[in-house]
């Protein structure tokens, strides 16, 4: 694994599990302070800021291109957040998550080549039970990577 890029170094130092733990902790904090029912865009901005305050890099509305028959199409999808270059965070504000939401993030993982995604629904009365951790294949333990 490369360690020359900032994101790669951050992945090696913190590991995917630690990064996802920081994301979940920040999401609980945001939900506790703001409550349910706001627009997804509000949670996106506030969560991104909370993650940066925890020392993570955050990119918002990241294009997820589609590769088909040797061509690249940038008009595909946009991930709400990509944290530390390794975790896709998809934000919802709905009464309950649907199977289509899980399929959406699994598609993003497949197309992006990233291994871990979090689907967070801020629409529920409680955040507990409204966070899905989705993986595209086995998650390596990056803490022990060179």
Describe this protein's structure.
The protein contains 3 helices and 5 strands; from the N terminus they run ααβββαββ. The chain is of the alpha+beta class. The protein has one domain (6-137): 3-Layer(aba) Sandwich (Trna Endonuclease, Chain: A, domain 1), CATH 3.40.1350. It has a 5-stranded mixed beta sheet with strand order 1-2-3-4-5, sandwiched between helices. The longest helix has 29 residues, at 6-34. Mean pLDDT is 86; it is low at 1-10 and 141-146.
Regions with little confidence, pLDDT below 50 for 5+ residues: 1-10, 141-146
Calculate Rg over CA atoms: 15 Å
Q: Widest sheet: strand order?
A: 1-2-3-4-5
- Helix-residue proportion: 25-40%
* SS summary, helix count: 3
- Residues in β-strands, percent: 25-35%
Q: What is the total domain count?
A: 1
* Shape category: globular
Mean pLDDT: 86
CATH topology title = Trna Endonuclease, Chain: A, domain 1
CATH class: Alpha Beta
Q: Please provide the ordered H/E string of secondary-structure elements.
A: HHEEEHEE
> From the coordinates shown, what is the CATH architecture?
3-Layer(aba) Sandwich
Briefly note the structural class of the backbone: alpha+beta
Number of strands: 5
Largest sheet, in brief, is: 5 strands, mixed
- The N- to C-terminal Cα distance equals 7 Å
